[in-house]
Amino acid sequence: MGFVSAQLIVQGLINGFCLGGTYILIGLGLTLILSIMNILQFAHGEIYMIGAFTVYFLCELHGVNLYLAVFISMLTTACVGLILERLFLRPLKGKFLSYVCVTTGLSLILQASVVLSFSLRTKQLPSLWPGTFDVFSLLISRERFIAVVIALGLTLVLYLFLKQTKYGLAMVASAQNREGSLMQGINPNVMSAMVVAIGSGLAAVGGALGGSIFNLDPYMGGLAFIKGITLIVIGGLGSLPGAVVGGLILGVSESLVALLFGSQMSVIVPLLIVIVILIFRPKGLFGHE
Length: 289
What we know:
This protein has 289 residues and is mostly helical. The protein is 76% helix and 3% strand. It contains eleven helices and two strands, in the order ααααββααααααα.
């Protein structure tokens, strides 16, 4: 390892926070769905990918403003999530092998559909905010800064929704005690539909941020899904603070390790973190014992 300047370290931290922001958005959806429906949605990475390509379709092919395209993608993908929940996930509750097969098949179908529609070529969205900030002689990318702000802002909105609204509190109750929530008149089907829609919308925004800052291709969802699972293991199932901290740990560790030791090590280190967490804290950093 050669000499690395303080500026490069700061840049690595910023890149890590940006990566972590996209991971947080997909991890939040996964942990919500898993907490409330007891289903690991294997096609959730492809929802992330569909969100990115919806923005590409609107923005690059039809000239829609980037931020408006992201908002439309979030709503559209939430509707796709509602359809998937009603047609595929709800009928398979309690049937582990069935939903694994069905959601895995869905992911392959969605990948193939995007390949046929947009080809295999790597694509990129317009910059979220071109240019850089000059802070104490450190150049900070504006688009990476705004990506972190969007990710953390949506996380805050979700937290307030779960803690301050009727339906949010009902979701929390359903996740904590399904039988007790049923006795209080909470409809589990409504909760399931809402959580899949919210999770899908968040994943779509994550895909749009990743596609703008990095690249997008039909197979980007597979890696995103793995990152989401890793994030859940680190932070703890069902914990929003855990999802945020886990995403930031994952993003920062990948970015700094890639800067200091190379891209190969950046793949290994998160797996080592997961192993250590599973050994010493099986419930995750913020999971309930």
